[in-house]
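Schema walkthrough. Field components (list of strings):
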Amino acid sequence: MRYFTSANQLGSIDEALAAAKYIKDNPFADQELGRNKTLLMVFFNNSLRTRLSTQKAALNLGMNVIVLDVNQGAWKLETERGVVMDGDKSEHLLEAVPVMGSFCDIIGVRSFAGLTDRDYDYAETIFNQFVKYSGKPVFAMETATVHPLQAFADLITIEEHKTKARPKVVLTWAPHPKALPQAVPNSFAEWMRVADVDFVVTHPEGYELDPLFVGDARVEYDQRKAFEGADFIYAKNWSCPGVTNPADYGKILSKDMSWMVDSEHMAWTDNACFMHCLPVRRNMIVSDEVIESPRSLVIPEAANRVVSAQTVIREILKSL
Ligand code: AN0
Ligand code: CP
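Field assembly_structure (string):
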């Protein structure tokens, strides 16, 4: 595997889930696979779960791990080719990336969306420079437009908790004070479309996700209608994807608190489980009561990030 950003790179979704189950049951079975191999994790943004779970996954596979916070202690990086570097950026990504590649066998990259230039973000400019110039397999630890390790962990969690063969899964937008990327809902939509679930997306008008990810999934603008009969409620804020109006890309179009998931909202469902990728702002996205309820899966969902990361890194190790 040269790079990992989406569901289809793991073969069929059933194969991916079977591999994840094997890893969950046998976390230390492949320690030889990673012996003397080094994972470099490069962060352009903050992280708690991705940082810890991906390290833990690599350690379970017997690997060595190096972590670089680009914004803390490294040289400020220029990412655009052709600029006269007379500002505050001391080094170009075009040298930094192959140098990083020379120190490791696999690279994980977290490179958030800037949310100002849609074309730049959706071209995955930073991630693709790692793929092109590092000479090593690269996986997404949340890039500008995707968060596949999260979506895979979400799917594993749904598999573990579903009580129906084909559960109804609802992705709902919820309010947030800051503009957030579309990476989590993009990947969640992409993975739910290939999973055996009845998938519905609900959000205020203007928040339509890119068709590249949401495809022909059902969109229901009436949140109450969307929630009816739901088995899983997956809440997430995202900023305007700029699909209907490119000028609105990255903007906050609504802070409508009636979209916050509280007990009243959950009462519309079929006793659904509540999910969120975390970090979550309580009483903006979800009420204290719902996130603390026995139907909340946020902690096991986060714990499954080790499983999704380990499944992906193992596949990459097997292909080295
Ligand atoms: C990020 C986001 O919405 O993409 C990370 C989530 C995994 N969230 C925040 O920055 C709060
Ligand atoms: N869910 C997730 O990726 O969290 P972090 O941003 O803390 O890594």
